Batch of 2 targets.
Target 1
Amino acid sequence: MAPAAQPKKTDPSFQPPGPAREREAVLQHATCAVCGSDRQSVILEAQYENEKDLDLIDKFRASGDELLIDRLVACAACGMQYISPRLRGDLIFSSYAEGEDPVYVSQMQARERTFAIALGHVERESGGQRGRLLDVGTAAGGFLAAATARGWQAEGCEPNRWLAAWGSRQYGVHIRSGSVFDQPYEPASFDVITLWDVIEHTTDPRAMIEHCRTLLKPGGILVVNYPDIGSWIARGLGRRWLFLTSVHLHYFSRSTITRLLESCEFRVAVIRPHVQRLELDYILSRGAILSPGLTGLARKVTSMLGARQMQVPYWLGQTFVVARRTNALLLALLGSRELAEMLMLL
């Protein structure tokens, strides 16, 4: 998304007007998660008057669809885009932990199909080996079910207690309730760690990536899926891009996600568009927030044709990354990233 013609420097003491709640008590200033800089320019001003979900549990449910009302800024040093100011991290996490989300789990069959295809790409990078896998922010466990069916020793963790319980019951997979930072996972114990639609939600993406690195075996694989704000569709739709939502705190592009991963001692092996599948009526219902009339008409036609539950592929900028944990000592001794990577593959 192109910056505004005359970007304005932000002020860490900035406090927006407080419409429905005392925002000065619940918002905090944020800095760049990629390079740590505090120098920012405004891309989109806040629109708090358009807030739809006053209840934070509704706002932060997995199927939440409130369009962005917060201020979007860009790092003046590296170009990373993110929300600042934003809700306090404790409020965000506690909101994710509560509530039920039957709308999300209504699409699990389509999600399983998407995950099965994605696993094929992961297994190509792993040389066909199926070891121990951790899915961070696993939601209702669809990816765990797909991985287990293909022979992986798969487990996951999920902040939302209702989704974790639903997935454990539905699929018989091992889902721990809570954050990955709360779990007793042993260092260097996983061959693959996956972050499906997670990194953009976390308050500290760097801490998340670094923690995942400690849990991966040397040479282990990290999979990250995120909505790319540098994609042509995001740039074309601007503020009407459906992934520009209140629950997404960070907006990566290919360059900023690569920079973050490399600074956390990962080597990016694959980065490409990620096509997902959902039921047609569900996809159309998500578009109602932009055009209720047109969406309503399209849903009626779909219903008449008996195609409401048809699973269709869609892409709105979702991007799939596979990165491999590198050996920091080897890199330091050799002083050559390219040579180190060649030796690691021997």
Target 2
Amino acid sequence: MKFNYCNDEALETIARNVISKYDPALLKGPSSIPIEDIMEKVYGLTLEYQYIRKNGRILGETVFEDAEIPIYEHGCNGGYKLISVKAGTVIIDASLLHECGSSGRLRFTCAHELAHWVIDKKYFMQLGETANLSSNVIDTEFADEFLNYDALYNNAEYRVNVHEKAVRSSDTDDAIERQANRMASRILMPKCTLKPAFYQAYNTSNVVSDLAALYGVSKQAMQIRLEEMRLLT
């Protein structure tokens, strides 16, 4: 099954609809979009904070059907364990709660996972997989560590499936993740409010930093969004 590719105009429209379902007034002026409230109150998603991987490569994971998924037991013993998770659960890596200055990354991760729920749900449900935001799709460290987890090691069928899932990578995966990033930026930084806000702040010396603080995103995310909108060159 092919994933649902959306052009830029479609993503802008979907993002506006996501925000409008929560509060249309948010589209009238620049503000920090309450992404976690939108996820929970509009889409009925459950947010959980766990250490997903030891190496920190996966920042968020969305569960589309009831499943058992591995998480890292952060502490003196370490190691992985399986936890039962209900459909509609979004797991955010707990490290984002504790890292100094990571609020923007946490909010972008939430928006990225919401994007998967809104536009990729059917695709992932047919694949029977979760969606995750990873800084490296091929998570070899996790694959090796998890395959040595004693409680699961004797289950050969499950072990093979987990290994294939842990290292699966393709051009389609990259396209899905890039699209979720584009959607996330449009939710957190809606064009209809960002463009006038940019021109209002254009003459300030720290326009990117000022707008990033106003919208509750990282400076990097704001820089990319402004460049996409051709407001910065």
